[in-house]
Amino acid sequence: MAAAGGGSRADNGYGGQQARRRKGPGALATGYLVIYNVVMTAGWLVIAVGLVRAYLAKGSYHSLYYSIEKPLKFFQTGALLEEYLLIAKYLPGIVPSSVVLTAFQVMSRVFLTWAVTHSVKEVQTEDSVLLFVVAWTITEIIRYSFYTFSLLNHLPYLIKWARYTLFIVLYPMGVSGELLTIYAALPFVRQSGLYSISLPNKYNFSFDYYTFLILVMISYIPIFPQLYFHMLHQRRKVLSHTEEHKKSE
Questions:
Q1: Cα–Cα nearest to 14, from 91, 90, 79, 80
Q2: pTM of the predicted protein model
Q3: Which of 90, 147, 171, 210 is catalytic?
Q4: Helix axis angle, 167-192 relative to 209-248, nearest 10°?
């Protein structure tokens, strides 16, 4: 599930839990991670500016997807590199994060970007696409800024607060957009037989993409509450720790 708007990525609380951190990356790896996160922050800012400019030019929020389609595909797919960094155990050295949940969120967003929105052209004008794009954009600007400042050991409280608070609205908003977009794609997938493989064939294998999308939607039922309540737990832990730290100073 895209974590769509939530920004959980299972969650990545860089700051505030220093005593529990594992050994972090060396200077070279840290420099690389800083550059990566700065680039990703800038990329999602470009998407945000593109949305605003397109809205001001058109005077309507309908069909704004086309104004940011290319950078959205590029930077959302770029999150696969983040998944590699997690598996390579760079980020876990800084972040107490679940690689499995993070992998699910990264892959689900890439899946929605390419296998649904890109592949089913008819849904690109749906308002639900704008719903998850806006949620993703705000979430990612905050998230990558959070990573950058955390790596530099200079995390402003406002960014930490936004990281652990705005997901309360953004996550359900993004998930709603994702589910509505997949639902809107179903009739076109069934009619066209997109990505489906029928028998007989030499591999004796069949695949129904329509059914697969339904199963993807059903998978949100157990995963979304787990991620959402995990974020709520992280919010209480991280922000309460920050408040206690302030009082002790």
A1: 91
A2: 0.85
A3: 171
A4: 170
Q: How many residues make up the chain in this entry?
A: 249
Which residues on adjacent β-strands are paired with residue 171?
A: 5
Active site residue 171: yes
Cβ burial, residue 107 (10 Å; 0-12/13-18/19+): middle
Sequence ranges of the domains in the chain: 27-194+206-248
> Tens of pLDDT along 143-169?
999 999 999 999 999 999 999 999 999
3-state secondary structure of 97: coil
Scanning the chain, the segments in alpha helix (DSSP H) are 27-58, 65-77, 79-87, 99-111, 127-151, 157-163, 167-192, 209-248
Beta bridge partners, 207, equal: 197
2 φ, ψ to 5°? -65, 0
pLDDT for 64 beyond 60: yes
Given 65, 144, 178, 228, the catalytic residue: 178
